[in-house]
Write a structure and sequence with these properties.
The protein is 82% helix and 0% strand. The chain is mainly α. It is flat.
């Protein structure tokens, strides 16, 4: 069950991060409120997760999948370019998360 909460936390965090662009530097009220609320919910969920798994593993999955997801959102919805460097970076981040999970779970 902790992985379900972790995936939910990542999804909420990706939405909150996506709203940062729409908030226009926190000058637009509702995207700002949505972004801040999303981060609050995501951190509460992450706090629940770390009660049931090592914080290093939880944070590695959070950071890795969150980074990959927000990069994909940027390419698909925010007209950001998909470069070789971006793809290589995402592959390396995901490889690090996999390595941590294989060797870090006790």
């Amino acid at each position: 069950m902790p992985y379900v909460y972790l995936l939910l936390a990542i999804a909420v965090e990706v939405v909150a991060t996506s709203l940062l662009k729409v908030s226009d530097g926190f000058t637009r009220l509702w995207p700002t409120v949505g972004s801040l609320a999303g981060y609050g919910v995501a951190f509460v969920l992450l706090a629940v997760v770390v009660r049931h798994m090592p914080v290093g593993v939880a944070y590695a999955v959070w950071a890795g999948l969150g980074t990959a997801a927000i990069a994909a959102v940027g390419v698909v919805f925010l007209d950001e370019p998909l470069t070789f460097a971006k793809i290589a970076g995402i592959v390396l981040v995901i490889g690090g998360v996999v390595t941590l999970n294989l060797g870090g779970v006790s």
